[in-house]
Write a structure and sequence with these properties.
alpha/beta; seven-stranded mixed β-sheet; six-stranded mixed β-sheet; globular
Length: about 625
């Protein structure tokens, strides 16, 4: 499946991590057939640059009109685009009003905090609507630290809501007592310590949880906050002291260690689950995944991307998901509507922004939101929130408020210490084509890839193990790969070793893709740890050119884990226009991972950090 970019956790100062990765996920770098969640999107096209990216829309006003640019998180961009098109052309203050949507990316917070440079950050927005108010709170704190003043006002009304839930295949949820029994994080923690045999289903194996990286994704952030509330037994006013409590930390560690892997979007899990369901194995991939309620409906409609334009194009799953509303309480993704207080937002734009907000909150548009399984701006469920659809309209009975920004910082830094460790092998293509210059940069593709990998190194922590291979053709006798740094604990010495080896890479030879992919998979498999995420990051700019290698048809069976064994996941990066996207997608899908698109070489830094968010 396809994927996308932005920062992440580990040794970064937690607040900076949240800032750089916040908001809505980065768009357009994913190879998924569309994407959703709090930011990333696209349909397999080439990525764009900047913190916001325009969505194609017909102009409604001639010269003299007022044009309002709204940057929105990707899960609602397409729906808002249609509403904006219907709205545009009306008169506000005697002038024609036009609303243009852009896809909000993970760079919005950073760009707004420093004042927004259109050359670097793309079209500047007048209104920002991330998935959650938590990102606005972080923006205020970041702006205060930069002494630039808050670029958003204090009042940012919701335009639609959807609560965080724990989505679970229906038979599994029913085995736990759904829908009659109240369930939550404590039940999942208990289940993670045993297996499904306790509930009469040994064939389901151990409990496997999917959860996104809280530095990328609103669902991941809300789930992490929710587990801390569950660990402390509180329903409000979470404090730094609560987050540091040893008992709370152990609770969170237990939940995190049941994770299959992380990621920058829930689409990774939902698309993999759909593929498993298509193959009749809907109960084998994952036991539960923290998502927004709307995503459960999207998945059950055969449309995990949540894109209205793809609704109805895939069959509904054989095994549907149902929503568990954590008994300890849950948070809402409240889609705030923040009119910027920046100099470029003048009185005319503010008037249009206020009018468009009123339009969005009016009954006809609220119905359009609820027709796609959002709840209304005041949290009321629509006709789709029914038990028949796996959703419970009377829930959630207990809601939580996001902690203060300083406490949120502590949550993120604590999570970085408690999350599941990773064993990762980075495999970098150094074939001759990697020496091609990237127009406008004065640097080669390999130069940019090396820098991206080096920039990602601080994201690994002392509990991780990371190694490095390079590959082209005949690098070590008849082998197409060469080990440059063995997989080892990421201490200062290993970090320096990896950096030095990356800096020394030079392009030469052809592309020995298939043999190297199998060798890398087997290498990590031989060092597999049940207590870690085991993965390969595989970057290439070409197609297999080793005529003596095994075929793709012989490679893929070798990447499939045997029943009841944990797979090594291969996260591939298609780098440059000549990369074999279809092949890389098949490799990643075979290992229940994701393929990332960096066909525009200038996007590689963002893509690389997005890939690392899975660990």
């Amino acid at each position: 499946m396809y994927q996308q970019p932005q920062r992440r956790r580990r040794n970064f100062a937690p607040f900076i991590i949240a800032i750089l990765l916040a908001g809505s996920l980065i768009v357009g770098l994913r190879l998924f057939i569309g994407s959703r969640e709090q930011g990333g999107g696209g349909t397999g096209g080439t990525p764009g640059d900047g913190a916001s990216q325009a969505v194609s829309q017909t102009r409604s006003c001639d010269g003299g009109g007022v044009r309002l640019t709204v940057a929105a998180s990707i899960e609602k961009t397409e729906l808002l685009r249609k509403m904006a098109a219907d709205y545009s052309g009306r008169k506000v203050g005697g002038r024609c009003a036009e609303v243009v949507m852009t896809k909000s990316t993970g760079g919005v917070i950073q760009a707004l905090a420093r004042g927004w440079d259109e050359r670097q950050d793309g079209p500047r927005p007048d209104v920002w609507s991330p998935a959650s108010s938590s990102w606005i709170a972080l923006l205020r704190q970041r702006a205060a630290g930069a002494d630039t003043g808050s670029p958003v006002s204090a009042d940012n009304p919701s335009i639609a809501k959807t609560p965080l839930v724990i989505a679970m295949p229906k038979p599994m949820a029913e085995a736990l007592g759904w829908p009659g029994k109240k369930l939550g994080w404590s039940d999942l923690l208990e289940l993670s310590k045993s297996s499904w045999a306790k509930y009469g289903h040994p064939e389901w194996g151990r409990f496997r949880l999917g959860k996104t990286n809280p530095n990328f994704s609103t669902s991941g952030l809300n789930a992490t906050i929710g587990t801390y509330f569950a660990a402390t037994g509180l329903s409000g006013d979470l404090s730094e002291k609560n987050v540091a409590d040893p008992g709370a930390r152990e609770f969170v560690r237990g939940v995190e260690h049941s994770i299959v892997h992380y990621g920058d979007t829930t689409l990774t899990f939902l698309s993999n689950l759909q593929r498993a369901d298509d193959a009749g194995a809907g109960l084998s991939y994952i036991s539960a995944v923290a998502v927004e309620e709307k995503s459960v409906w999207d998945y059950n409609e055969g449309n995990p991307t949540g894109d209205p334009t793809t609704l109805g194009k895939h069959a509904k799953p054989k095994v549907p998901l149902v929503a568990i509303y954590p008994k300890e309480g849950t948070l809402y993704s409240d889609s705030p509507y923040a009119v910027l207080t920046t100099p470029w937002v003048d009185d005319a734009k503010r008037a249009v922004a206020a009018d468009f907000l009123a339009y969005l909150r009016a009954a006809p548009q609220q119905k359009r939101f609820t027709d796609f399984a959002f709840r209304s701006h005041d949290g009321k469920p629509g006709r789709l929130i029914t038990e028949a659809n796996g959703l419970l309209p009377a829930e959630p009975t207990s809601t939580l408020n996001p902690p203060a920004p300083n406490v949120l910082d502590k949550v993120l830094s604590s999570w970085a210490e408690l999350r599941k460790p990773a064993n990762v092998l980075m495999v970098i293509d150094v074939s001759g084509s990697m020496g091609a210059e990237v127009p406008g940069t004065g640097r080669t593709k390999l130069d940019l890839a090396k820098q991206a990998a080096i920039n990602a190194l601080p994201q690994f922590g002392p509990h991780d193990q990371v190694g490095l291979w390079m590959f082209s053709t005949k690098r070590d006798g008849d082998k197409d790969h060469l080990e440059l740094a063995p997989m080892a604990t990421v201490d200062d010495a290993q970090r320096k070793r990896l950096r030095a080896r990356l800096e020394g890479l030079v392009p030469d030879g052809g592309t020995g893709l298939y043999d190297t992919a199998l060798a890398a998979y087997r290498h990590v498999r031989g060092r597999h740890s049940g207590d870690a995420i085991n993965a390969v990051v595989f970057l290439t700019d070409g197609k297999n050119e080793d005529t003596n290698s095994l075929s793709l048809e012989n490679l893929l069976p070798g990447l499939r884990a045997e029943s009841a064994q944990e797979s090594v996941r291969m996260f591939t990066i298609a780098y440059g226009q000549d990369a074999d996207l279809g092949v890389l997608k098949r490799i990643s899908e075979t290992t229940n991972a994701a393929a990332y698109d960096s066909r525009e070489p200038g996007s590689i830094d963002q893509v690389f950090t997005a890939v690392v968010s899975n660990f």
